[in-house]
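Quarterly update from the structural biology core.
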Amino acid sequence: MFPNFEVPEHLSFNDRHYVMFSTVTQHGWRYDDRALARSGGTYYVVSDKLQGPYRLPPEDPMLVGSRDHANVVMAYVGRVIPFESGYLFLSLLGKRPY
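Predicted structure, tokenized:
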């Protein structure tokens, strides 16, 4: 589905399985029918079974990121934190120190 990805993370709730990951911008946008040009960020796929098959959700698969920009950088990495009976989504948008 996506030829390159980073920081994959599996979580499950409500009897469904989710895999979140960040894409490399020059590849990810080709699989995002909402994008017209380079895009990147944290996406997810979903399955009814742990072993798959996993598929793109009917709603937007990008949890955080940017679309259609000529110079997208992979600064959009999201992580989940278990909280009570669910999860919190943390978006880490930062700059590399110089």
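Residues 5-93 form one domain.
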